Amino acid sequence: CRAAVSVSDARKAAGDKFGADAAQMFFDTEALQMASGAPVAQHRAARFAADEAVADVTCGIGGDCLALARRGPVAASDVDPARLWMTRHNAEVTGVGSRLVVARADARVPASRCQALFADPARRTEAGRRVRRGNDYSPTLAEIVAPRPRLTTLAVKVSPALDEEQIPASVDEVEYVSWRGQCREAVLWFGSAATARRRATVIDGGDLRWDEAAPPSAEVGPPEAYLYDPDPAVVRSHLVGLLARQLSATLVTDQVAYLTSATEQATPFARCFRVLAQVTFGLRRLRQRLDAEGWHVGEILRRRFPVDPPALRRDLRGAGETGSQVVSLVCTRVSERPVVFICDPR
Ligand SMILES: C[S@@+](CC[C@H](N)C(=O)[O-])C[C@H]1O[C@@H](n2cnc3c(N)ncnc32)[C@H](O)[C@@H]1O
Predict the structure, then answer these.
(1) What is the spatial distance between Cα 316 and Cα 23, in angstroms, rounded to a whole number?
(2) Which of 86, 148, 300, 323 holds its CA 20 to 30 A away from the CA of 109?
(3) Strand boundaries in the chain, DSSP class E
């Protein structure tokens, strides 16, 4: 029964990542977890020059090289023979087999003649535990970024949670990419494909770019009629200040990524909430307000707030239930005091 559940979970995860193609593709569970989803891989592939041959030196089951092959020729390699077989199969069934050459190779030993190279190193130990440091990746970040004089473009997919001090100093651009509200990856770009120092990309939304050394800062201002919760790619790339400029918004609190402005503006880079009420946090006070207005609690967001959302939801059970309006709670601090903004989700 457990095996059946895990096959059906794997099919669902594959469908989320590869859409209709998943039904014909092969993957192992671990490789599927590590594979890039098609929309993210397509975005990245489109940043390589069209028709330029790209070496994907850690191809896994082919999540990235299928997208690269839709754009031009690809030399795919990996150390795992079973995954190479799956990449070959997956390329055939998705119609890009003729654009792909597949060979077993160790990425630490430069072999390909391509001038553009992509690497997505394994970020788990053999026992399946996730690793955090770039030099625990396989191959390590240092091994991938070692000087390769012939390359014009190098792109390395890393965890979006990689500490900034572990990013090699020679990087030209760091791009954080989100899809469906989650930051999926960071990509370190070296060479000609880099076009900004920092970039926050929202798939199907566009990007925010910054090309100076220090990321822009934002002022703190009093809470206004609208709150914005920036996309995680904007937060991870430290481009909240740039978004604040675009929205003519200020920070609700220093070092906390919620923005506020007097006007509502549609943006792909943040979710917008209309503030219905601002309550200094106290459970009784909050319950009373929800009951009085007939507001019951939907989503709870929090940044620098002392109570975690599941505990707060438990404590507010039953509040406002006579009413019909579902509200979002945005929990944070204002002038160091915990505050709950009761909001209408837009
Ligand atoms: C994160 S997965 C790649 C996933 C792939 N981009 C995809 O979307 O399917 C990392 C891959 O690196 C391979 N690998 C680990 N060390 C390697 C090395 N030294 N040389 C080549 N491949 C390596 C692993 O076998 C694994 O398939």
Answers:
(1) 43
(2) 86
(3) 54-56, 74-78, 100-104, 116-119, 153-158, 173-179, 182-191, 198-202, 206-210, 226-230, 250-251, 259-261, 270-280, 295-302, 325-334, 337-345
Is residue 290 within 8 Å of residue 316, measured between CB atoms?
yes
Question: What sign has the CA pseudo-torsion 28, 29, 33, 39?
Answer: positive
Kindly report the protein residue whose alpha carbon is nearest to atom 3 of ligand 1.
60
What confidence tens digit (pLDDT) does each residue in 231-258 have?
Answer: 999 999 999 999 999 999 999 999 899 9
Q: What is the Cα–Cα distance from 26 to 6, expressed in whole angstroms?
A: 15
Residue 294 has pLDDT above 90, yes or no: yes
Q: In the predicted model, is pLDDT for residue 91 greater than 50?
A: yes
Span between the terminal Cα atoms of the chain, in Å: 42
Q: Whose CA is nearest to atom 12 of ligand 1?
A: 58
Residue type, 182: Q
Asked if residue 185 has its Cβ within 6 Å of ligand 1, the reply is no
Ligand 1 pocket member 83 (CB < 6 A):
yes
Neighbours of 137 (CB within 10 A): 25
Ligand 1 geometric centre to CA of 40 (Å): 17
Distance from residue 60's CA to the centre of ligand 1 (Å): 5
Sheet of strand 325-334, all strands in order from the earlier edge strand to the far edge: 250-251, 259-261, 226-230, 270-280, 337-345, 325-334, 295-302
Distance CA(208)–CA(316), nearest Å, equals 38
**CA 120–ligand 1 middle distance (angstroms):** 6
Q: Cα–Cα distance between 179 and 177 in angstroms, integer?
A: 7
276 Cα–ligand 1 center, Å:
49
CB neighbours of residue 183 within 10 Å: 22
**Residue owning tokens 């399946």:** 128
Kindly state if the Cβ of 82 falls inside 6 Å of ligand 1: no
* Nearest C-alpha neighbor of 36 from the set 137, 97, 123: 123
**Interacting residues of 7 by C-beta distance below 8 A, sequence separation 6+:** none
Residue with tokens 């490789």: 31
**Which neighbouring-strand residues pair with 333?**
338
139 CB near ligand 1 (under 6 Å): yes
